[in-house]
Design a protein that fits this description.
This protein is mainly beta. The chain is 12% helix and 36% strand. The chain has one domain: Jelly Rolls (Sandwich), CATH 2.60.120.260. It contains two helices and 15 strands.
């Protein structure tokens, strides 16, 4: 009986130790495995950003579209049920600030994007992607057209598989540049989220109450 109790005790201790090594966030960097970290576009800091739309202008959190419903998430495929629109204006800059527990030079950077202004191929000349002050020279990305925001459907677009992340603070900026892709003035992509796959442990401070502040500006 004493030996049985001792065996059960050791097994319980082993289970506790094993569970402590797991992360509930789905990003378990530091274990040598690849992990995908997602930053929702609607949770960035929109302070001072003035967006341009197809037929109207929106400011700050009013650039967020969606209601976060199960239909939008599961049927429409909008990550988290929201996305950022009104990007059709030169100079619009969306900034993602995040931290990393280590430096890596082979992270995969993916943007989940679509277009509402025609089927286009958008590249560095029209849409600048910069990581820690280094401009990423990526291949132009083909974006399918969805003429209304309600019909928007997104696809993951791989921007780089050799993105360099620093230990500590990192900044990813997405800037719409003046362009004439459709012959009707500057346009930008509709953005759902950013995904970074690496062996690092990444974190950020999302402004999760942003959608609730729409209409206040």
């Amino acid at each position: 009986m004493r030996n049985t109790f001792k065996t059960l005790t050791l097994l319980a201790a082993s289970c506790i130790l094993a569970s402590c090594g797991q992360s509930s966030g789905g990003n378990t960097g530091g274990d040598g495995k690849l992990n995908t970290f997602v930053m929702e576009a609607e949770y960035i800091d929109f302070t001072g950003i003035v967006g341009g739309g197809n037929s109207s202008e929106q400011r700050e959190t009013n650039m967020i579209y969606g209601d976060g419903t199960d239909v939008e998430k599961n049927e429409y495929g909008w990550s988290n049920g929201y996305f950022v629109a009104y990007t059709h204006k030169a100079g619009i800059c969306l900034e993602f600030d995040f931290k990393s527990d280590k430096a890596v030079n082979d992270a995969t950077l993916v943007l989940r994007m679509a277009s509402e202004m025609g089927t286009v191929s958008i590249g560095p000349d029209e849409f600048e992607i910069k990581l820690n002050d280094t401009v990423i020279d990526y291949n132009p990305q083909y974006l399918d057209n969805y003429p209304t925001l309600d019909t928007m459907r997104f696809k993951d677009k791989t921007i780089s598989s050799t993105a360099q992340i620093k230990a500590g603070d990192n900044v990813l900026t997405l800037t719409v540049k003046e362009n004439n892709l459709t012959g009707a003035g500057t346009i930008g992509p509709i953005l759902d989220c950013v995904k970074i796959t690496s062996k690092a442990q990444l974190s950020w401070e999302p402004k999760t109450d942003n959608p609730d502040h729409r209409g206040e500006i």
